From TrEMBL:
One Pfam family named in its UniProt record: Glycos_transf_N
Active-site residues, Swiss-Prot/TrEMBL: 77
InterPro entries assigned to the protein according to its UniProt record, in alphabetical order: Glycos_transf_N, Glycos_transf_N_sf, Kdotransferase
Full protein name: lipid IVA 3-deoxy-D-manno-octulosonic acid transferase
Organism: Ananas comosus
PANTHER family (UniProt xref): 3-DEOXY-D-MANNO-OCTULOSONIC ACID TRANSFERASE, MITOCHONDRIAL-RELATED, 3-DEOXY-MANNO-OCTULOSONATE CYTIDYLYLTRANSFERASE
Residues that span the membrane, as ranges: 180-202
GO terms for biological process, alphabetical: lipid A biosynthetic process
Keyword flag Hydrolase: no
Domain 3-deoxy-D-manno-octulosonic-acid transferase N-terminal residues, every copy: 43-228
Cellular-component GO terms for this entry: plasma membrane
Family: Belongs to the glycosyltransferase group 1 family. Glycosyltransferase 30 subfamily.
Site feature Transition state stabilizer, where: 147, 227
Length: 410
């Protein structure tokens, strides 16, 4: 046990030393990313723990508000945390909620979805200086990490300050598990997991992986997939399924353009999957000649290239980023914008979820489409979402289907 503790401390010491040595290079890297449009043009210093918002004053002399820090890496995890944040604020409006995400795309979308009282910052880097700046300024009482956000400086520094650290919707891919099980990494993650107050695991498989990495069984609990569970809890219903006036106008405009045509949507389509979707669309048009496909790219930058290729094939295409109208002759409507999936699910009865039709992919969250009343179809490669699909089939066998391996070659 002493050797394990010593090994963990040595591993953490090496990690911190490497982080301190890399800080000048990280500063240059973030400046370069800002010039490339990959970081926020004015708020990128937040990544070094430098706040852009004032910390609210205490409600009474000598007191201070209880601060809950929610952290998610990207758009999907960030959106999944919003119902939980709303639920917390409904029951404890005196709490101060701080939200951070890592990616710029998540920031641009989520900033308009959060309650106005929530403070939203870009996540600090996991360097000693950035984390020290962030924790010293915001002084959170609890940190709620979404899914697989295991950062040594964040978790260990917070715990050493007496801050409760919770991992929600906890998951660990097989690839990550193998990486953390290595001789050098195992002592570090063992120390991290020992600092967690609670792990709310996605399923039994994930729980076993955390235990094999030396997480205490006493802190591991189950609540199902929060993204899926949102469909069945009040926290999901609080405002989240309401349509904003802006989205209502968009929906009405799209429905007028679609003019009661039969529609299906291919969502979160990765590079290479568009060929599968277009093959399926060609086959379906033989049965439904007026069928319209909404093709939502996973990466917006792929939209123009897909539209260009389709036009070369004499397919009638409209591109959303260019505000092109859906005509009666439009066969494919390519959506290459961010943050509109939830709105688009409201205009289609069928949603095929991409990221699941090619080897090497691992699926995407299907609960949002199901929540909007869509019949859901995925491919065979769904990764950790297989548990969610199984639970959804138990509750409604017709709500979701999974395609087997197929060959679209002639």
């Amino acid at each position: 046990m002493i050797m394990n503790t010593m090994a963990s401390r040595v591993a953490y010491g090496l990690y911190r030393a490497a982080g301190r040595a890399a800080e000048p290079a990280l500063h240059l890297l973030l400046r370069w990313r800002r010039l490339r449009g990959l970081e926020h043009p004015t708020r990128w210093p937040e990544r070094f723990g430098r706040p852009s918002s004032p910390r609210p004053l205490p409600p009474a002399p000598g007191g201070r508000p209880c601060v809950l820090w929610f952290h998610a890496v990207s758009l999907g995890e960030g959106l999944a945390s919003i119902p939980l944040i709303k639920h917390c604020l409904r029951h404890r409006p005196d709490f101060l909620v701080l939200m951070t995400t890592t990616t710029l795309s998540a920031f641009e979308v989520i900033k308009d979805q959060l309650p106005s009282c929530v403070i939203y910052q870009l996540a600090p880097l996991d360097s000693p200086m950035a984390m020290e700046n962030f924790l010293s300024y915001w002084k959170p009482d609890a940190v709620l990490l979404m899914e697989s956000e295991l950062w040594p400086n964040l978790i260990i520094s917070a715990a050493e300050r007496g801050i409760a650290v919770v991992l929600l919707n906890a998951r660990m891919s097989l690839k990550s598990f193998k990486r953390w099980s290595g001789l050098l990494a195992l002592p570090l993650i063992s120390l991290m997991l020992s600092k967690l107050s609670l792990i709310v695991s996605l399923n039994t498989v994930q729980a076993v992986r955390f235990q094999l990495l030396h997480a205490s069984p006493s802190i591991i609990h189950f609540a199902g997939d929060l993204k899926y569970g949102m469909l069945h809890t009040l926290s999901y219903a609080v405002g989240d399924l309401d349509v904003s006036e802006k989205d209502a106008r968009k929906i009405n405009n799209l429905q007028l353009q679609m003019n009661n045509r039969p529609i299906w949507m291919a969502a979160s389509v990765h590079k290479g999957e568009e060929e599968v979707m277009l093959w399926a669309h060609d086959e379906l048009i033989k049965i439904f000649p007026t069928l319209l496909m909404i093709l939502v790219t996973r990466h917006p930058q792929d939209g123009q290239k897909i539209a260009s290729e389709l036009k070369k094939q004499r397919v009638n295409v409209s591109l959303r980023s260019r505000s092109e109208v859906i005509f009666p002759s439009t066969s494919v409507y390519v959506v290459d914008t961010l943050g509109e999936l939830r709105m688009l699910y409201r205009v289609t009865p069928i949603a095929v979820i991409g990221g699941s039709f090619l080897p090497g992919l691992a699926g995407h969250n299907v609960s949002e489409a199901a929540a909007m009343g869509c019949a859901v179809l995925t491919g065979p490669h769904v990764g950790h979402f297989s548990h969610m699909l199984g639970e959804m089939r138990k509750s409604n066998v017709l709500s979701v289907s999974q395609a087997g391996y197929c060959n679209t070659s002639p």
